[in-house]
Amino acid sequence: MPDTDLMLTLGKVIIAAAWADGAVSNDEVNSLKDLLIHLPNLTARHWATLDMYIETPVDAAERARLVEELRAALRSPADRALALAALNDLVTADGAVTEAEQRVVAEIEAALASADVGIFGALARLFKGPVARRSQAADAPNREAHFEDFLKNKVYYEMRRRLNLGEGDVLLPDDTLRRLGLASGIMAQVARVSGGINAAEFAAIVDALQQHWGVSREEAAFVAEAATADVTANLDAWRLAREFVDTFPYAQRVRFLDVLFAVCAADGKVSRAEVESIRAVARSMLVSRRDFIDAKLKVPRAQREA
Which architecture does CATH list for 148-303? Predict the structure, then answer.
């Protein structure tokens, strides 16, 4: 039976192939997961790793690193045959194979088929191409370096991903970004519970980041955009809250409840669902019931449903 490391690496390469044209639809995501579910011996942590690759695009440099990782992991002809069969199943599953996908699969097949190490050495001596590709793959982006952040502080993970892609001009220290990720992630989660985040709530998140964390308007907007993006919609509020406990002292956690109520009240009303969501956050942040009630009562009765 193929070992677990090979199956995990194979899964990552399959996902990279699915991202070949730069987009993966919801239907394709479901089909992709249906395919990956057949890979044996994967644990919950392995599936969380695969989710990192499913959620956001895999570019050419990262794909090259993953292909080289898979080629190095192959230990038998049976493993190689399994890898090639799975890749072909993926790209033919929906009956429509794009030219980009065909090129990527051909690239992967060529890398996997070249089992003779001597061939790579000869090519390196003659053209230095394989050496250059190996160097490029070694320096390529590796999102797994932030795997723990993906689990515990997904907004920080998303901000770091965007910054690595040059999608933001933010020069804040890393520890500040982590704190902002926790705070904005929790704000976004409580605002989402009543049907999504509206413009007033988004503006309130930006204002809160400026006022309480001392960042600029542009920096606050960058953080808020990461916190409210679709890719961070399924945050684990409990994990965020417990990380918040480890990061902020009790008094600051109590004051943060005022921030959460202010965000939810930005559209004129704090719904019962929002109140209960903040109550759950307070409990996870180890804030007392009395302090939670005091924060809730600061919102005028006419503005809250509970």
Answer: Orthogonal Bundle (1.10)
Give the integer Cα–Cα distance in Å for 109 and 130: 16
Q: For 166-173, which contacts have Cβ atoms below 8 Å and span 24 or more sequence positions?
A: 168/222, 169/218, 170/218, 170/219, 170/222, 172/215, 172/219
Count of residues in the chain = 306
Q: Would you state the structure tokens that stand for residue 209, as one six-digit string?
A: 């980041």
Rounded Cα distance between 108 and 87, Å, is 9
The type of residue at 36 is L
What average pLDDT score do residues 266-293 get? Answer: 92
223 to 139, 160, 193, 217: CA distances (angstroms)? 27, 10, 20, 10
Extents of the domains making up the chain = 4-141, 148-303
Cβ atoms 86, 14 nearer than 8 A: yes
Checking 174-177 for CB contacts under 8 A at 24+ apart, the result is 176/213, 176/215, 177/223
Give the number of other Cβ atoms within 10 Å of residue 151's Cβ.
17
Distance set, CA 216 to CA 207, 219, 249, 251, 302 (Å): 10, 5, 24, 24, 33
Strand partners, 270: 304
pLDDT for res 71: 77
List CB contacts of 136: < 8 A, sequence separation 6 or more: 61, 64
User: Residue 166: left if φ>0, alpha if ψ -120 to 50, beta else—which one?
Assistant: left
pLDDT in tens, 230-275: 766 677 777 788 888 888 999 999 999 999 999 999 988 999 999 9
